[in-house]
Every structure is written in C-alpha cells, then in structure tokens.
Amino acid sequence: MSIERRPGEAPVKSEYIIWNSKEATSDDKDATDSTRETGSDDTKTVSEANRDAESNDNSNGVKEQNENGSTDSPPSKRSKKREKRGQNKQRPLFKPVNSAKPCTALNSPVGCTVPDRCSNLHSREDILKYMEDKPEDIASPCPVYKSLGYCPTGLSCRFGKNHIRGTFNICEHGCDKSDEASESSQAWNGSHKCLDKVASHVKNVVTKETINDLRKQRIKFTRTDQYMSILNKTKKECQADSLQYSILDEPDLKLRLEEIKPIDFSGKLYLAPLTTLGNLPFRRVCKLLGADITCGEMALAQDIIKGGFSEHVLLRRHESEDLFGVQIACPSVDQLARCAEFIGGQGLSVDFIDLNLGCPIDLVYNKGAGSALIPHPRKVIDMVNGTMFSSGLPCTVKMRTGVKMDHNLAHKLIERLKYETKVNLVTLHGRSREQRYTKLADWGYISKCAESVAPELAVFGNGDVFSFEDYYGALEKYPKVAGQMIARGALIKPWIFKEIKEMRHWDISSTERLDILKQFVGFGLECWGSDAVGVEKVRKFLLEWLSFLCRYIPVGLLERLPQRLNERPPRYRGRDPLESLMASQDCRDWVRLTEMLLGPVPHDFFFMPKHKANSFA
Question: Is the separation of the CB atoms in 338 and 357 below 8 Å?
Fold first, then answer.
C-alpha cells in the first residue's frame, strides 16, 4: 500500500500512523490513563501559557514593539514567520515558591555560621512543625542517598523515607556506629562527623570566598597583563598593516605555548556544548551511553571574572567526565585572557578551553561575541594565543561557516589559525549564522577546510549526524575530517554514541528509554537538590529535554533506516501506551511523563519549551 507523504515527513509504517483526530484522541487517552491520577489536569498548555502572558502584558499596559520600535502598526508577514522560528523569547516561566525549610548548613560539622542572617529554620520547635506539615514523599528510596550514602538536602528531601528518622538525617558511612545511641550523638537534622569523608563527585565548585574576591577585584591577572603587554608592543612595532603581525616568535610566548601538551581528539565521540540542555546531569547520561569528550555549556567570560555565580556553575565537572572542556564566549581579548587565567590558575579540573565562534543568538552576536567574531580573524588569533598563554591549557575553537548563508569565511580563518596559533582543534558546524539550523549542513565545505590544514591541524565536523551510518559515511566520504561533534542527535537520542560504537541501530524499548529518564532524574536531584525547589528545577530541565526526545521515532516503526534529523515525525502511535506517550508532541504529555518520576506538579504549573523545531525539511 503506497502512502502519500508530506515533503520532509519521516517514513513511519502505515499501521502506526494516526490518520484522524478521533483516533488520536482515543489513542492519547489509552496512553495516558496510567498517569491521569497524578493531577496534571491543572497543567497549562503552550497556547494557554501564551494567552496568560499576553493578558498579563495587556493588564500592565505594556505593548509589544515591532522591529522598528513602533507600537502602532501591525506586525508584517515576515515578522510573524520569524516569530515561529528559533526560541520562545519572553516566554513565561514557572517559579516554585521557596518557603522556609530546615537550614541545610546544619548538615555540616560546623553547623550554620550565619544564623542571624539565615532565613531558614534552626530551632527544634520550628523543625518539628515543618516535619508535621511536610507533604508526603514522592517516592522511595532517595536517589541521592542511594548513590552517595548521604543526602545533603536533609529533612526537606522529598524522597527521604529511607534516610530520615524523626529529625535525624541518617548517613550510612558509619557516624558513631560504636556508640549504641548513635542517633542521639548526632546533631538533629544530621550534622554528621564523617561528612568530610563523603567524597564529592563534582569538581570545580568555586568557593564563595573566591567569588567574593572576583567581585571585589582582589584577584590579580599577571599572566594576562604580561600577554597584553607583549601584544600591544608588537602592534606598535608593526609598521605596515596593523592587522598583519605575528607574536609566536616572542620568546616568553613561544616558551609558554611549547609547554602545553596538545590533546589527541582524533576518533573520539564528542558531545557538543549545548546551552541549557548540556547540563551536568545530561552529560553524565551521555557518558554512560558512550560519549568520549564532553564540554560544559557556553559561559560568558565577563560574568565569570565578575563573579557571577550562575556562570561559575557552568564550569563544574563530574568525575566520570574523563576528557572535559569549558566553552567560553567573549568579544574582548583582554576579558577572555583574564577568564582563561582564572580557569587555569585556580586549580580547576579542566582539560581544554573551547572558544565559541558559533553562537547565532542575537544577545551574544550583538555584543560582538559568538559568530560575530568569524569576520575578524586578527582578533580571534589574539584570543586563541591569549587563552593558551594565560591558562596554560590547550585551546579549541568551535565555529560556523560564516555569518551570511552564501558567503563562507571559515576557510580563511582556519588557515590563519594553522600558521598563527597553536590551536589544538577546530570544530566546524556546516551552517552559517543566518541559516541557524535550517537546511542541511555543508559537509563538502567542511571537508575542503579540513583538507587545507591537514595534518597539522585537526578539524572536526558538526551537523546532521543522527545514526552510525551518518557518522561512518561522513568519515569514509571525507577522510581528512578528523572526527565529528554530535549535538541535536544526542538530544533526540542520547544512545547514538552506543549505536556508533556498536555499529548498529538500537530498537530501544519504551521501558529502556524510561530508565534513561530515571537516570537523568537521579543525577539531577544530586546536582540541584531533592527538596521541593530542586525537584521543580529537575522537572524544568527534563521537560526541555523531552521537547527534543519526542522527535525520536523507534526503529521498529520505520519503513526505511535510518531516520534523518531533518525529517518531521507524523502523528503516530507506539507499540505500547508508554511509547505512544513518549511520541506525543503535546507538552501536557511531557508533563505527565515527569509526574511518573517526580510526582504531581504544583498547582497552576505551566511550561513552554525554550526551543522551537524549525530544522525540518
């Protein structure tokens, strides 16, 4: 039976396709019956959240401006089309109520050091009242306690049945086991004497004292000052064109760069740095599924050197990440060098620093960072040399083909990087800034760039890798490309690394996919906490990830293999109710999936995904 498909639609077998809305409604009901009792009827859809945001704007008397700053004329057809693509800007965000809870500092051997300024609960009476009013636990056992043998969240843990006894937070590492009254010898809420023996699995946790020193400008950047002095001196001595000079022959710089041992990236599976979704729990999942190289989310150099806590969190590394880098975006040579010196000089566990030349979003581009740097090779060269000199670490570069769609610039920049820097690796995304993620990646151009600098400089390709056939096909067709970075393919099916290493299509079952989500939830609770606020933070990131995961089509449902990254899934049912639920494009069904793992959502909960899928054919 021949099926007439829409252009760009994935070839799902006809017996699984949902042909009419009545059938879809019935199938969705069957798929979600097991989760309806969790109370997700209060969940708002994307459109409902949009309407709420619009009504709030109108009630506050705020009118949305168009691109020219005017509020009178209606938006053009072109602006309406642009609004459907990219990110959901100005989306409403759900923020859980952060009510008073037992002070987590009571878990430490020294207790709370600032009780007069701490807004949490300290007195035994207040904590007893808190325990009486605390809602029933979501589930048991606590994933954090199961993994670490100790739950730092303490009495406010929403999974605490197996480690909370009255007002004691139990530790399985032997707190005063020789004492018959071991619980009474512990401070209530679990101030364990052996807490310092519980090794942290997370590295690069910058102390509050260091962040305060950055904010008050107490940290000196001597390496950066030395580099900028060399750079400015060389510029002054340059008689002809100020953009044509080389500092690689400077004795101090040359000696410093020769001390840096390069990393061999060839043949390794590289998980791309992914904003928002490339968080530490997600990277841990990908490591378990076969990723070799991981890199933190894009961090802004200016915010790091000014002591921004949220940026410093992006530098954290789990002990399972054996080859790890941090990605930095910056428009200034001096700022980037200072940031690199901080990373290299503070004893942080980092293997390499990646310079972002690919970010297409307006917020970064308009500041002169990300893909805005591609037309400025002189500045990029100074940035790479400054990063390596100041940090003492290898430097890599991730970039796009250029800014405009029909005007490639990457080959010029990559060739200069080969001769004027000691850059360790260049990763080229085969699309321009203007393309974002539309159209297919230009692997022919990636290969051309790799050939021009091989073998002295390794070039990785990036774009449209979604199966082991895509991966090995590109390596066979373009032998000068040293390897590949995987981005959206890992978001949609993180087991792609396992498929590549085993050279097979994995027809993964819905229960196996649910187990991967359970792993993510456990890692997320370790990272963000297992109290009410931490649970909702895990839910938020899980929902963002589910907005990509729902695009995966199981192998057994396809007429031909492999699925292409730019093929849009039609509406289809799975082979079981859970697989149908995971295939849903309705964010209410994503919320129901989170309720299976994290319990019911709070009252008036709503969610709108950050990213819109505009990359289908």
Answer: no
Please give the positions annotated as active site: 359
**Average pLDDT taken over every residue of the chain:** 83
CA angle 88/92/95 to nearest 5° reads: 130
Compute the half-sphere exposure of residue 422: CA atoms within 13 Å on the CB side of its CA. 23
Task: Tell me the two tokens of residue 591.
Answer: 């919320």
The pLDDT tens digits for 27-46 are: 444 444 433 333 444 444 44
Query: Are 184 and 168 in contact, with CB atoms under 8 Å apart?
Result: no
Q: Is 340 exposed, middle or buried (0-12, 13-18, 19+ CB in 10 A)?
A: buried
Residue range 243-267: mean pLDDT, rounded: 88
For 612, residues 6+ apart whose C-beta sits below 8 A from its C-beta are: 84, 85, 86, 87, 88
> What secondary structure letter does DSSP report for 63?
-
**Separation of CA 183 from chain center:** 40
| Of 332, 339, 351, nearest in space to 312 by CA | 339
Query: Do 372 and 329 contact (CB within 8 A), yes or no?
Result: no
Residue 399's DSSP bridge partners are: 357, 428
Counting residues of the chain whose pLDDT is more than 70, the rounded percentage is 79
Q: Does the pLDDT at position 92 exceed 60?
A: yes
Do 314 and 297 contact (CB within 8 A), yes or no? yes
Quote the CA–CA distance of 506 and 499 in Å, as a whole number. Answer: 6
Query: CB-based contacts of 179: which residues, under 8 Å, 6+ apart?
Result: 185
Around Cβ 515, how many Cβ atoms within 10 Å? Answer: 12
pLDDT digits (tens, 9 = 90+) for 197-231: 555 789 999 999 999 999 999 999 999 999 999 99
Rounded Cα distance between 260 and 236, Å, is 28
Instruction: Indicate the pairing of strand 425-429 with strand 299-300.
Output: unpaired
**Nearest alpha-carbon partner for 360 in 151, 589, 24, 611:** 611
Q: Are 372 and 330 in contact (CB under 8 A)?
A: no
* b/e code 23-62 from CB counts within 10 Å (16+ = b): ebeebbeebbeebeebebeebbebeebbeebeeeeeeeee
Find the helix or strand (DSSP H, E) in which 582 lies.
helix 577-583
Give pTM, 2 decimals.
0.86
Nearest of 549, 557, 551 to residue 575 by alpha carbon = 557
Cα separation, 595 vs 35, in Å, equals 7
As a whole number of angstroms, the distance between CA 550 and CA 466 comes to 15
Which residues, including other chains, have CB under 8 Å from residue 87's CB and lie 6 or more apart?
361, 610, 611, 612
Q: Angle 64-609-361 (CA atoms, 0-180°, nearest 5)?
A: 65
Per-residue pLDDT of 43-90, as tens digits, reads 444 434 444 443 444 333 333 333 333 334 455 555 555 555 555 666
- pLDDT, one tens digit per residue, over 161-188 is 888 888 788 877 765 443 433 443 343 4
Q: Using N-to-C axis directions, what is the helix angle for 333-345 and 377-391, rounded to 10°?
A: 20
Nearest CA-CA partner of 204 in 313, 74, 316, 67: 316
13: Cα within 13 Å, side-chain hemisphere: 13
127 vs 253: CA distance, rounded Å: 59
